[in-house]
Amino acid sequence: MDVKRDDGKFKFDDALEIATFGIFHYFLIFICGLLMSAIFCEIMSVNFSLPVAECDLSISSKSQYGIVSGSWFAGVILTAYLWGLLSDLYGRRNILTITPIVAFLTAVASSFSTHYLILAVFRFFNGICMSSAGAIVFAYLGEFLATKNRSRSIMIASLVFGVISTIVPITAYFIINQHWKLTIELLNIEYKPWRLFVLICGIPNLICGIAFIFLPESPKFCFSKGQTQKTLKILNQIYFLNTRKSDFKVKDIQLEDEFIHASSNPKGVLHMMLHNTLQMLKNYPRSFWLLSFIQFGTFYVCHGLLLFFPDILHEVSQFSESSNSLQLCDVVDKVIAHKTNLSSNFIENCVDELDISAYIYVTILQSCFLVGFLIISFTVNYIGRFPILTFIFLTTGLCGILIAFIKNATVATYLYLWLLVSGVSSNLLNTVCYDLFPTNLRSMAISTTMLFGRLGGLAGGNIASILLEKSCNWTFGIGGILLVFCGVLVMFIPNIFKRKGGV
Fold first, then answer.
1. Half-sphere exposure of residue 15, counting CA atoms within 13 Å on the CB side?
2. Residue 349 carries which DSSP code?
3. Per-residue confidence at 265, pLDDT binned at 50, 70, 90?
4. Cα angle value 37/39/40 (rounded, 5°)
């Protein structure tokens, strides 16, 4: 291996290469991918459960879906910036160990909810915990990887996400559509399959929290804090695990400008918060604001509109005979009018199971994510991130716009599905963010741009909950226009045309 040294000291990226890429990294990629999946599992646990839990949770309108979903995003948004800052100050691993385990406990509590407002409170605290994982995991994983392996490895972690998220709707079908119930008199609730599904969706968090107990702190973070010996020890452990050899030849690491700036940061959370924020906005304003807006548009669609995907698919299935002559929004309007009529006549209309087509379409959606992550993983180093992101945003955005004009609900359903595939771009955008910010700002930058993404998810879920009942076509039209605009903005991201080279 040809590496450059300065006065006998290896550059940090060269030291990572000498540590080699092996079994340690495969395990790390799997756990980080599982943690990414845990976020999706938490979101889908509610998305699948709400349609069949309306009577158990006293839900009477789609706007209340928005309250439950919005509370989760509110928890994410209120703490995303703080988690990023704390991880830059105190380390990534400690936070990634504690918060997933607490998130699992909130999932258990959510499964015992008796009202949608109680569920919203538990989801709020779950969002606080998942906020840390949502951004810190990208910085943590990336800092174990040499430059040439970084984008591909993060996308491979996304493949793990793709596989597990494809399993989620299948699991939902086999659990939620069962008809058993267990009466818990002490809590005055009937424990039904949807409650068990909510609990099971929290298990990936528990696994990740336990796994991070045995994983080391990010070596790049340790070095940025001046802990050279600890950094070398971690790299030596990685080398041993990958090669089963004890001849790691890196004995010192060259202090580069990035680490000099990191070690000069002020102490204390509030001082560091102000200092790092000013540094980020002063030195990287273009990168920060472009990525923040693009993440906002992406999450507005892929999470905001995903909330209603299982419910709308279930509704379309009820009109399967006439769906070839109806727009998708015609079906939604008919169902809303039907439910309104039932409510006005005091007739309880409880749905105990979702039509199988809802699970099939969500499985297809997640399969598209899986294939998308797979293609990106093998092509990103060769064709670059710009053409991939542009293709995703322009095609998915066009689908959102076309939904308003297609007079076939079944065809429109597939357009809706591809519209949601826009979410495949989010992890790739995080690799862009990783490369644009230095170590001492990286976790906070990813957290903050993701914060804007979660704001988009919150806005999308609540705006859609209103528009679906008032002006359904605009629900999809606004999302489509946002994505097209994001596709245009991609070309202005610094260094977006640069490729990593084939590896």
1. 26
2. -
3. low
4. 65
- The 3-class SS string of 33-84 reads HHHHHHHHHHHHHHHHHHHHCCCCCCCCCHHHHHHHHHHHHHHHHHHHHHHH
Type of residue numbered 54: E
Q: CA angle, corner 125, sides to 122 and 128, nearest 5?
A: 150
Quick: pLDDT tens for 131-166: 887 768 878 888 888 877 777 787 788 788 888 888
Q: Tokens at residue 83, please?
A: 């988690």
SS3 helix, strand, coil % of the chain, rounded to 5?
Answer: 75, 0, 20
User: How far is 43 from 24, CA to CA, in rounded Å?
Assistant: 29
The residue written with tokens 């979410």 in the block is 423
Q: 253: which DSSP letter?
A: B
H helix intervals, 177-319: 193-200, 203-213, 219-224, 228-243, 257-263, 269-283, 285-302, 309-318
Q: Compute the distance between CA of residue 386 and CA of residue 346 in angstroms, rounded to an integer.
A: 55
CB 157 within 8 A of CB 29: yes
